[in-house]
Amino acid sequence: MLGVDQLSKHLVEHSIVPGEQHKFLPGIQLVDTRNHGVAFGFFPGNHLIITVLIALAVVVLLVYFARHATDALIWLPTGMIAGGAAGNVLDRLRHGSVTDFVKLPLGWPPFNLADASITLGVLVLFVLVDRAREQRSTQRTAEDG
Q1: 3-state secondary structure of 111
Q2: Residue 70: which domain range?
């Protein structure tokens, strides 16, 4: 994920002039914008504080992964989230901001592949955690019954 994210950002930075929009697919534009906030431009501010908060969140995720490493597919969202976070943190350390380039209609803020990976990773993590919780509940019910 990290390599694809960094390559896509490099291509955008060297092929799209900031402020220009290029049609990619119906309803999807490619742009070159700089994001000083977190995913999708939320909470713009001091990139150092945001970088530290992201790093702490990744540490919490890795601790959770270590404690639940035997849970089915838990590696998938962990890799998606950690890889996406690493891509954006690398941008912040190098440039002081993150390159966003996918623009959807209806005023949705531009985002990048790392943001998409983080978002999908969180959704997959919620599904897996909920599924594991349901399985434990079913096992307890079977043991009690």
Answers
A1: strand
A2: 34-108+118-136
Residue 29's H or E segment, with its range, is: strand 28-35
The number of domains in the chain is 1
pLDDT at 45: 64
Q: How far is Cα 109 from Cα 123, in angstroms, rounded to an integer?
A: 19
Residue 27 in any domain: the answer is no
- pTM, 2 dp: 0.82
Low-confidence ranges of the chain (pLDDT < 70): 38-47, 145
Q: Are 19 and 101 in contact (CB under 8 A)?
A: no
Distance CA 46, CA 83 (A): 22
Q: Which residues touch 129 (CB under 8 Å, ≥6 apart)?
A: none
pLDDT in tens, 110-135: 999 999 999 999 999 999 989 888 88
pLDDT of residue 145: 63
- Describe the crossing of helices 113-144 and 75-95 by its angle, rounded to 10 degrees: 150
Where in the sequence numbering do the catalytic residues fall?
Answer: 100, 115
